[in-house]
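This part of the workshop introduces the protein records we will be handling. To make this concrete, we reproduce a full record directly below:
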Amino acid sequence: VSPHGNAETRWEVEAYGELSVAGCIELAWIMGLIRHVSDQDYIGWVDAKTGEPVRDADVKARYEEHIRAHTGIRLIEPDLALGYDPHKKQVLREVQIEHDMAPFEASADDAAAYKKSNGDRVDVWENAGGASWSVRFLKGALVRVPAAVNATRLVAALLPTGWNATRFGIPEDIVKQADPVTLYVLVATVEALVRSGITDPYELYQHIHISEVGNTIGSGLGGAQALQDMFWNRGQDRETRSDALQETFISTIQAWVNMLLMSGAGPVKPSVGACATTVLSIDTAVDAIQAGKAKVMIAGGVDEFFEEASAEFASMGATSNAVDEFARGREPSEMCRPCTSTRNGFMEGQGAGVVVLMSASTAIACGAPIYGIIGMSATATDKQGRSVPAPGKGVLGSVREKAGATAASLRKLSVGHRRRAFETQLRMLDAWRANELELLAEVEDPEAQAEVDEQYVRQRRALQDAWGNEFWKQNPAISPLRGSLAVWGLAADDIGLASFHGTSTKANDLNESEVVDAQMRQLGRTPGYPVPAVCQKWLTGHSKGAAAAFMLNGVLQSMRTGLVPGNRNADNIDLKLKKCDYTVYLSKTVQTAGIKAALLKSFGFGQVGGELLVVHPDYLLATLGRAQLDEYNAKLAQRDTKAARYWQDTLVGNHPFVQVKQHPPFAPEQEQRVYLDPTARTQYDPKTNEYRF
């Protein structure tokens, strides 16, 4: 859920600079410009205002100009910023009155409150009849008067104009109760699930236990509207939700996802890492899967754009000053300028990004589309200092290596060497199993034989881990990044792009360029073979907690297409970056022969540095035998068809996009049994069209 709509419409603008007809239809629907009708007289799209029929082929010509003007980075629209109008930014100023004011009528309680607060500077008395009281402020009393002041942050990356959670099917009562950031996450979660071929979350429990689906979705600030209710509206004695407090908790966001969609009982680890929240969320989710605590994790981040945060970022000098940028003759879309000599602060934005992470075996078994492999995830803090937002180089720890490593100590980098070692130890394990089963054959003990087989499988998996994914761990001669590449037979030259945090601040873009350059040098990348830098925020702005989710989806789309999107505001690359020989800063999209691997960086306030290595999914699929691959592809085709049908049915109004659950997948009397039985699985009931235990 981004300033350019969903993941696919954002990609069209990022990669191609324009929307396709299909992209225009999706965004026009998202923005409420068109709706689908089906009656006796007409089946198709109509203009939402006039009801006039609109052909599919005419949507682009009719609406694209409006869509482009009301998506992405643009002048702030109050309806999308919790009512904030930067041209009428209000503050309360204290004024001392110089003469007694005329009395006004108030209730007895209000009159007593004024007297309690102002003492002898106010007179109160009961009116005749006792039905009301009068209040008069006297000379010297202090009153607070609203004053409109000018703001300098007039531009932001906002959701498409007209974005409405109810259009996606979220019930009105939920819209009124939950904070808007939760609504963004609900829509993003359903999109992530549907793009994973999962149109009903309860279907997951047909493949894995309900305790094996977890959630690490987090946020930098959490429920902004709820925070305003607590600290502003409550203090102004305005009508405020009674449950505003719960919506300020960052853990509440993932709670709504579970309550309305998932009904899972797996690991819950809400993540908070400011602008690096999504990478922190993914890193935590990866740890949960690799530790065996879960097989599926929902990860991601979300943040809002609102007045208070905009003002505080401005006071820090962190964000782009629109007044200055307009004076330089720039349009709003040109104001976020990563890695240029004229960059002058990040462009604040809003939105949510969610990803579905599965263990490889789970994804293959259920036929889920695999868009990429998380080859490595890492986080790091930085050095001593006094600046909370200052970026650092702690993430260089991912290429830490002992100097002077011998060729013998690096043999494990070779897939051939590891395969030989694995096969040698596997033969020894096979011999142990055969010997144990031969001894047990005389006593005919099936349980003992089953125990031997269980131990054999466990030890075989340990061997696969030792020589496959974990051979580099605790080896000072092999860095985590080099080892993670070597797992798939890759090296530094196989990194096809680097997705930059690229905030358009003076400090970050220089620091990040130096980090990537140092990593490539340490890994031995071929001189003269630079890594293309993708600086997505020129288009999306900086959505804080959701930023790395937008970036990761972009990386996966680059792997799918081979395209490396350019930064179309990069018309004057900073000369200070010239020393970074291993990075090239593109200003237009380039078609490559394919991208094998990519690096993604994220840096958050509070010394939260994060990094992902993403590997092309073909490297996983290539490990499957022909029969297993054919079986997987058959399941995948079914999921792709089902997912496409789900989205089409949403657009034409056959069902809502977000289908809120009305009950868990089990009856009340089944609940404890389901939690206690690791083999409990849902079954599809065609009569009710539901998955139930």
